[in-house]
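NADH-ubiquinone oxidoreductase chain 4: structure, please.
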Amino acid sequence: IAACLIQTPWSITGAMILMIAHGLTSSMLFCLANTNYERTHTRTLILARGFQTILPLMTSWWLLANLTNMALPPTINLMGELTIISALFNWSQPTIILTGLGTLITAIYSLHMFLTTQRNKLPLH
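Here you go.
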């Protein structure tokens, strides 16, 4: 949102790249969440634990989706975020703090979601 508001050429380019990346990444995460629902018949991800032993291929897809969500190289998310971060930093240097905080929160949530659904012990139900 901030990239669209400052309206520099780099920020607009980064915003467009990130919009495309978000569409691909969020679609992948929703598809995987739906696959979890089809297997467990519950929408609560905390009840869907230990899938690594049951569905190892789906665990690989969850890992790929979460790494893409965290904008790790060589994903398109990283290109968009780096473009936006450089545009924001050139516009106002204190924005790097907010950007870093947002990136940290996204990484923590993505890792927590992956570890909870894939690496915990199997539920008894």
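Notes: The first helix runs from residue 2 to 6.
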